[in-house]
């Protein structure tokens, strides 16, 4: 597998999915079954299939999508910092209206109400960022992997070589032991 | 004893994927149960695990004990399709035999979900919880039919890469 060839589509797909997943309102599409995650993986697979002189297999797409999603997860986390600061300022402006709406929704569980109220005053902490990075890399990696495999299945039109069977260690050869050397009994005259 | 890796490796990838998707299916059910039991921090953790990849709208999610699952109807269908699709014998149907058949399979299995979601945006079809879950399930099974052979291929390659080290030892 040519890993140098893999890096460029992974970076393109990863950065694109990362930025689109962080910027509102386009990040809303991630709510549709992580569309940007799957789309980023599929885009990377498409770019690799176009550039590759050899047939790209499903396994290649799997790995490519995993790397693309992990890059995208990290990029999303970084890009979401300025977005969160902007959103927090915006939420603070409309805090009274939001709290009034939450108060009117009687069916909301209390912990969810508290969660929404905390979001208005949420601070960006290093531990929160590390947690977000972990979650984003995990979930986008997973969905990127789905997208990469799906992309290869969809865009690779060439026939692959039949896969080689797995390597299985062979049992040691049964070589008969060497015959014992003839005993040196000396010249017959001295017997 | 000599191991038959041609049978072990596909089984291993199926077991690994079952554990992965099974864990995620269990997590989405555990979230409302933990919320019901009053363990808010654990429930929030599980809800936030799925929040980057699902809208988690309570009106479009199955619920247990009055609390919605950690994912919507469609995503729940996808995860369950991924889990159960691992053990479906897709190789017997031959959907992956050639690139053409593979592409036809991808388009046919993804089309119901895309239609269901697309028609809801246009307003021609409202969709129901059942259609969202079933079309998601078929899409999940499609993904599983590709992921298991893909991961099996990676494990096969890994077994060949390890070969020189084995022979040196």
Protein model, in words:
The complex is a heterodimer of chains A (191) and B (169). Chain A is mainly α and 191 residues long. Chain A has one domain (3-159). In chain A, 65% of the residues lie in helices and 0% in strands. The longest helix of chain A has 36 residues, at 58-93. Chain A is elongated and about 115 Å long. Chain B is an all-alpha fold. Chain B has one domain. In chain B, strand 1 and strand 2 (67-68) form a beta hairpin. Chains A and B meet through helix 3 and helix 6 of A and helix 1, helix 2, helix 3, helix 5 and helix 6 of B.
Which helices and strands, and how do they pair?
The complex is a heterodimer of chains A (191) and B (169).
Chain A: H1 3-22, H2 35-51, H3 58-93, H4 95-104, H5 110-120, H6 126-155
Helix pairs in contact in A: 1-2, 1-3, 2-3, 2-6, 3-6
Chain B: H1 5-37, H2 40-50, E1 63-64, E2 67-68, H3 73-85, H4 90-93, H5 99-122, H6 129-161, H7 163-168
Antiparallel strand pairs in B: 1-2
